[in-house]
Amino acid sequence: MFARDPASQGLGMTLDAIAPGYARMSMPVRDDMLNGHQTCHGGFIFSLADSAFAFACNSRNHATVGAGCSIDYLSPGRAGDLLTATAVEQSLSGKTGIYDITVCNQHGRTIALFRGKSHRISGEVL
């Protein structure tokens, strides 16, 4: 799935770990990702969390899409930071799953908390 994901790759993301109901992805904060306050634009942080969510909810090889999500920004990301999003399945029942994603910087500081709701569709990932 990562090989077919030019959006995540284009933002410099790497898929660092994956297991059933779990994914961890990283992304360096580049200068072109900064907003007018010289902090990482929230859209890039959201994209990292959303990508980790996507890989976690597809990790059981059932084609799954996002049905909804929310994010809370707690601390700014800065140029040169390495952000890591860790996605953990909280619930999977029928076709619906709930996933919590924590985005931290290289010092372990929590940057954002994201919760995603997934919906399984027909087909397999591989």
Structure summarized in a few sentences:
With 126 residues, the protein is α+β, with helices and mostly antiparallel strands.
Outline the structure in words.
Helices cover 17% and strands 44% of the residues. The protein contains two helices and six strands; from the N terminus they run αββαββββ. The protein has a six-stranded antiparallel β-sheet, with helices on one face. A hairpin with a 2-residue loop joins β1 and β2 (22-28). The radius of gyration is 14 Å and the shape is globular. Keywords: Hydrolase.
Question: How do the helices and strands line up, and which of them pair or pack?
Answer:
Elements: H1 6-10, E1 14-19, E2 22-28, H2 42-57, E3 64-73, E4 82-93, E5 96-104, E6 110-120
Antiparallel strand pairs: 1-2, 2-4, 3-6, 4-5, 5-6
Shape: globular
**How many H/I helices?**
2
State the strand order across the main sheet: 1-2-4-5-6-3
* Oligomeric nature of the chains: single chain
Instruction: Tell me the series of helices and strands, N- to C-terminal.
Output: HEEHEEEE
The name of the CATH superfamily reads: Hotdog Thioesterase
The termini sit apart by 8 Å
Strand content: 35-45%
Structural class determined from secondary elements: alpha+beta
Output the CATH class name: Alpha Beta
Overall pLDDT confidence: 96
**What is the number of domains?**
1
The Rg value, from CA coordinates, equals 14 Å
CATH topology: Thiol Ester Dehydrase, Chain A
Uncertain segments of ≥5 residues (pLDDT<50)? Answer: none
